[in-house]
UniProtKB/TrEMBL annotation, chain A:
Keyword Kinase belongs to the record: no
All residue ranges annotated as the Aldehyde oxidase/xanthine dehydrogenase a/b hammerhead domain in the record: 77-184
Keyword field: Molybdenum, Oxidoreductase
Highest rank taxon of the organism: Bacteria
Protein name stated in the entry: Xanthine dehydrogenase molybdopterin binding subunit
InterPro entries: Ald_Oxase/Xan_DH_a/b, Ald_Oxase/Xan_DH_a/b_sf, Ald_Oxase/xanthine_DH-like, AldOxase/xan_DH_MoCoBD1, AldOxase/xan_DH_MoCoBD2, AldOxase/xan_DH_Mopterin-bd_sf, Xanthine_DH_Mopterin-bd_su
Organism annotation: Salinicola rhizosphaerae
UniProt region (Disordered), positions on chain: 1-71
Taxonomic lineage: Bacteria, Pseudomonadati, Pseudomonadota, Gammaproteobacteria, Oceanospirillales
Similarity comment text for this entry: Belongs to the xanthine dehydrogenase family.
From TrEMBL, chain B:
Protein keywords: FAD, Flavoprotein, Iron, Metal-binding, Oxidoreductase
Organism the protein comes from: Salinicola rhizosphaerae
Signal peptide location: none
The organism's taxonomic lineage, starting at the top: Bacteria, Pseudomonadati, Pseudomonadota, Gammaproteobacteria, Oceanospirillales
UniProt cross-references to Pfam families, sorted A to Z: CO_deh_flav_C, FAD_binding_5, Fer2, Fer2_2
Positions of the FAD-binding PCMH-type domain: 192-366
InterPro entries membership: 2Fe-2S-bd, 2Fe-2S-bd_dom_sf, 2Fe-2S_ferredoxin-like_sf, 2Fe-2S_ferredoxin-type, 2Fe2S_fd_BS, Ald_Oxase/xanthine_DH-like, Beta-grasp_dom_sf, CO_DH_flav_C
Chain segments carrying region Disordered: 371-396
UniProt cross-references to SUPFAM superfamilies, sorted A to Z: 2Fe-2S ferredoxin-like, CO dehydrogenase flavoprotein C-terminal domain-like, CO dehydrogenase ISP C-domain like, FAD-binding/transporter-associated domain-like
PANTHER family per record: XANTHINE DEHYDROGENASE (PTHR45444:SF3)
Protein name, as recorded: Xanthine dehydrogenase
Amino acid sequence: MRTLTKRVFGSRASATDRNAAPDLAREVERELGQTGEVGRLEGDEPIARDPVRPGAPKAKAPNRHTRQHESAIKHVTGRAEYIDDLPAPDDALHAIVGLSPVAHGRLERLDLEAVRRFPGVVDVITAADIPGHRDIGPVFPGDPMFAEATVSYVGQPLFAVAATSYQVARRAAQAAVIEIDPLPPRLDPVAAAEASEFVRPTHTQSRGDWSAALANAPHTLEATQFVGGQEHFYLEGQACLVVPSEDEGVTVYTSNQHPSETQKLVAEVLSIPFHAVTVENRRMGGGFGGKETQAAPWACMAALISRRTGREVKLRLPRADDTRATGKRHPFSNRYRLGFDDEGILLGADITVIGDCGHSPDLSEAVVDRAMFHADNAYSLGDARVVGHRARTHTASNTAFRGFGGPQGMMIIERAMDDIARHLGLDPLSVRKRNLYRSVQDGKPRNVTHYGQEVDQHPLMREILERLERSSDYWARREEITAFNRRSPVIKRGLALTPVKFGISFTAQHLNQAGALLHVYTDGSVMINHGGTEMGQGLHTKVCQVVARELGLDLVTVRISATRTDKVPNTSPTAASSGADLNGMAARDAASQIRERLYDFAAEHYQLDRGGMRLEGGELVTGVGNVTRRMPWGELIQAAYLGRVSLSATGFYSTPLIHYDRDTGQGRPFYYFAFGASVSEVRVDTLSGEYRVERVDILHDVGDSLNPAIDLGQVEGGFIQGMGWLTSEELKWNDDGRLMTDGPATYKIPTFGDLPPVFNVELLEGHPNSQASIYRSKAVGEPPFMLSMSVWSALRDALASLVDYRISPDLDTPATPERVLMAAEALKHAGDENASAQQRDVHP
Amino acid sequence: MIEFFLNGERQRVTVAPDTSVLELLRGPLGQRGTKEGCASGDCGACTVAIAEAETGDQPLEYRTANACITPAHQLQGCHLVTVEGLAHGNDLHPAQASMVACHGSQCGFCTPGFVMSLFTLHEDRRAHPGPPLDAERLESALGGNLCRCTGYRPIRDAALDMSRQPDHRPAWSEDPALDTAVHGLGRIPATDDLEPDTFLAVPTDLAALTRAMSAHPEARLVAGATDLWLETTQRLAPLNALIDLRQVKELRTIEETPDGWWIGAALTYRELEPLFARHYPALAHLLTRLGSAQIRHRGTLGGNIANASPIGDMPPALLALDAKLRLASESGIRELPLDAFFLEYKRTALQPGECIADVFLPRPEMLGSLSTRPDTLGSLSPRPEDAPGEATPTSPRVELRAWKLSKRREDDISTLLGVFRWQLENVPSGEIRLVNIRVAFGGMAAVPLRVPTVERILEGSAPDIDTFEAAKDALRNALTPMNDARGSAAYRLTAACNLLERWRLVVEGGEGSEGDPSDTTEEVMLHAYAH
């Protein structure tokens, strides 16, 4: 086994010194003194892994994998341009959207005369001004561009105003007279589900006789859980700039994960052909799913104003408007009924997940599906039924967010693992390990999910868990923490190890396709363009690496340009972690076409043996040993051009093997699974509810990494973002359905000091993807997000110590200090009562 | 018109009073490297470095600020440094080079702000070499910058890596005349070119200030603007008539008396750090939890009080210390106990034309109860810095704890804040009594307040369970806190009572949280929050 190791402060903390508060500086200085490096990667694969050395000269070899982000220098010098930085002419208009102040009601009057008369206002639009489609629902109808007869959430667009400046437009929007006859808002998704208020039909997956399995199980438990939503809090808010073009068209510059869909919607709103709309995105200041469908409305509005006025229009949502108007991660209300044996091994399961979808379908069909697909996480449920409801409530339409329902689905089974352990007096890790997917158990196959997909790499998952169990010193720490908790009345420590198994592919099969466009210019420089968008995840860097690798070039020879719908058409959103898998393959396809053409040309033109040709080190190499012939890339390209060889190619890729039948709830929706596991240790003040995450160990599977530095960044960033979701990031609506936490003053994402002082993160190495993905890598965008579940489980572990681990505490998320304190108080009061009061053992 | 330097270049621009530094940069000056993330001073994406010319020939010191809530007119006589001004040609500043080398940027939108925080950290360490960076210093420097992508580990590495990068300096730093040129601009902007319906006054003494307030009752007072500016960026209120307090010399001094200090209301939190660190470690610790570095560099003590928010951090602490105010107006100066200042939600005892001039902070030793006998309780003897070289304590130490609860440890506003002051007294029977009690809370009512009923129960009582249980009952009866985005009323009340319990445990434990950190069984709170 080869490992990619990142040295982190205190990572080698021994069993004896781990109680000491880590002295960051000293650790760091020591690390520096010993190795002269900080935070670098060490690998032992000679060509494929390149150590990052801060301050070291740029790597000389072309195809080393660890490369800095293609825009890194532009980022740090302020030269990287985002939408609001794009130059616009002096007569450009600035648009602002007028939002509903009411969650549910009949729009009785929308008087915009004062807005129109406001000095500096140039145009005002409402639904009546839309020449084409008024409903811009991305998959299913239900999202009016502007509300008409009824309003469905606080923050729903009612009109847009364009003025000579941003401030004027904002002030003008306030002059609107809006009269809404309020109706009672529906804000409780469980009540909505009970009343069959759904945005999409309920879906069920089941396998085996789950009902009999539950009835016959030696133990059964049931519990419910609320899993909170999450605001994306991309640092760059929703923004677009629309430039009217000749004829009837527009060019739309937008911070957007799905340019093709925005192209479609803009064209449909304007009632013009798709070819009249070009959508471009160079980079986003963060997306996380929040700009998959919900970047389009602003582009539609700005495009309409731009066509009406013939002027450039910039539309940038102020942060509070952005937070109110756009959907979030779905809050979920989950329930399980589980049957298990004396060992804690699941025999049967009946799991229900209710996604709070907000007012419209948006992507909720697929989001709740993914929650259902992940209600098993890494565990064989036995005979199981999983039911998914899509509740309609009067909030913004909840949408894609890193993990796409998967995290919310996994939470219920991770809760169950802890609950089973407490019920049987076992350690939660033992229960988790016993339930991992495996080949067979008691003569029954345990390697097939409740939706019928075989988990082919399940031994890898077990290996990850067991390696992490050892490297994190789990059992010695468990013992020490239990002893600590016994003697510490106020401060309680908790420890938990949780796995992740995450399915990779869009569950909407048709989205699993990608295109690329590659040009080689006559100086040999290469331009690659593909359908994916760059939101910080390093996709463009990886795609450039793929092209450089295929053509044997230095990375500086390959440049990437903005994503544009007139270069690569009909693209899928950059989502579902699939950006590199799909677009990397498409780029590889394009590059390999060029390569083959060059081989053909060289074989014929120079009378060379085509068999042994290769492109490496910026040269075409033929032959072996002493008879090797080398031709510089630039010369080859010039000759090929003169030889009238096409130096441009389109690439295409579609993922093989995947299928899913929604009628039967069975299939193989995922091309493969990505795995990982994490161990978190927390320290909780049970008087205040305050806590600190003190140490985290992660081992994560990315197959053969395309770029270890970028992948580590995704693993760490995903973990911290997930930790925020489960701890401090709290969405609170008041009784009128108004979001109270509408900005960073009240909505608290993790900050610098929340970084665990000890943070050991490793990428699993030596385990290429079992499927033929791009260079046998695995997707990395979403899976690490769910590594954060160990933080939540560790908090429950710490709380359970208050009652000698006899009760598995309720702890809904986000587990704010308030929730932790209230859970501690509940446990203290329950201390002397029946230990199983929290979970009813429903078996007679 | 204001004159200042931007990345070494002299600028002369006309700005309306409600223009922010960010709007000036991204608009008229065309410098769009500085980003807007929230326009409320909470995310740090717009972080810039500002060096303010002070008196004398001090070298310029660069401090971070949130450009989105810094009034542009306050740039007069300053050197403003932005992300565009760091690299020297193709040579990146260490703050930039280390971010590249350590993969510190992903989407890159927060990066200019982080780079500026790293830049000021690096320059500060260049000017004032000290011990290696520790976690506290890093958190203090970087806690006001949000990153949604990286999870901060690479940024932590970058901060530690700066000292290893080639020490390229910005081009402007090679200009030996720059500091002098900045000093030469003066701090008072010309206002003769303002639009007719706008007003800006930058008085330099108290008399001019009170005159301006009297003549322009419509004008808003502005100091750090860290709260006021949200009225324009978030609520679109016009701020076209301003009186700036930051150049009023009386408001910018600390007057030391035998009893304590009169602290000028326009002094920033950062400027108070040394005083607090020396005399009130609890307040110094509280400052580390107040806003972010960007906020502490601009926000003022007077602003925190005059703002009268029920969740301001300083008022409960000052209430527990019997602070008083000097209020100034054209008719003169009056003193008022802080206790009498907060009337109801966001309403204070300030009269029209009146402002807070100074805040009196008593010396710790002046807070001692006269009845306290000085002979026992060695465990509570003064800390060395309070009584250097004294072998025998003269009185039991006055203890103060300020405990802030918030969703997030850094850069968050209090959900609730409890401040507790006490001394222990030996009575002739040999028992120990709590004396000299103050109990103050923020976030538990419409105003920051003391809770006299709780104080009365504790005063003179034994620090035992019965006493504190009675105190909790009294607290529950005295306060009905609010439900809001930061916490429910039930949580606030439960947590407030638990803070009394924590207090009891601290008293019971003697040294309490100040004890040996390795003796974990003695812990009554987390180290990250303890002081």
